């Protein structure tokens, strides 16, 4: 009788433990909660690797995660978990200064003056505001006076600062064997099977008060012409380092100021906004 009772208690405890384990399934919402709680990317990635999950990795869902400030490394882990892959060495080596080491897809700034050389990822952002100037004159003159459209970025400076006025960048697209994104930059889909830095423009912002501003369109009549827009563009060159990996450098030494690589998706919806990978060049 006693043995039967002990066996029953053990069985009940086992069932309770099993139910507790099975009850936890990570979702997009729970990952956002972990991120907002202040847990590090490494901790959340480890949790994703160790816990069953049901992630929505549609384009809309990934854009939503980005707007919730979920780090790219965590989003990459979610995509990998949902596709049944493995993160492999890329999650460990994503900041390696070796261009041939696995890196999560993205744009990186090579820093060489710190305690150790490292790649720093440029996080993409979108404009906080779009403003039009000269609208009244454009209307009254039937387009003879130009209408200027300007993108406004919050804050006077970018988070990342270069350690040289001729910085080196590395673009990682569809890196074979990395275990990461397979659509250009993952959540930011790019055309064709083999994207190149030609899809980007390097631009310089004007700092106005507490914001950075960029003239994006100059419209005469119903036509949009380059005009002053080309004055914001900065020439750069690139070379392939390995399949899907490119070294990108400005053609000339950069003046101190605020810059960004800009990519405009060829699609409709929220993800069609220009995405800015911004950085500062100190004086």
Primary descriptors:
25% helix, 2 domains, 283 residues, globular, alpha+beta, 5-stranded antiparallel beta sheet, 7 helices
Structural write-up:
The chain has 283 residues and is an alpha+beta fold. The protein folds into two domains: 1-87, no CATH class; 97-283, no CATH class. Helix content is 25%, strand content 28%. It has helices at 2-23, 28-36, 41-50, 59-67, 72-82, 90-93, 135-140; strands at residues 106-111, 118-121, 124-125, 129-133, 147-154, 169-172, 201-204, 206-208, 211-220, 223-225, 233-234, 236-242, 245-250, 257-263, 275-281. The strands form three sheets. A five-stranded antiparallel sheet has the order 2-1-6-13-12, with no helix packed on it. A five-stranded antiparallel sheet has the order 3-15-14-7-11, with no helix packed on it. Strands 4, 5, 8, 9 and 10 form a five-stranded antiparallel sheet that branches. A hairpin with a 2-residue loop joins strand 9 and strand 10. It is globular and about 55 Å long. 28% of the residues are buried.
- Give the spatial strand order of the biggest sheet: 2-1-6-13-12
Tally the beta strands. 15
Derived structural class: alpha+beta
Number of helices: 7
Mean pLDDT: 76
Number of domains: 2
Question: Which range best describes the helical content: under 10%, 10-25%, 25-40%, 40-55%, 55-70% or over 70%?
Answer: 25-40%
Low-pLDDT residue intervals, each spanning 5 or more residues: 1-22, 86-92, 175-183
Order of helices and strands: HHHHHHEEEEHEEEEEEEEEEE
Q: What is the multimeric organization of the chains shown? A: single chain
For the largest beta-sheet, the strand count, sense and barrel status come to:
5 strands, antiparallel
Strand content: 25-35%
> Nearest-angstrom radius of gyration?
24 Å
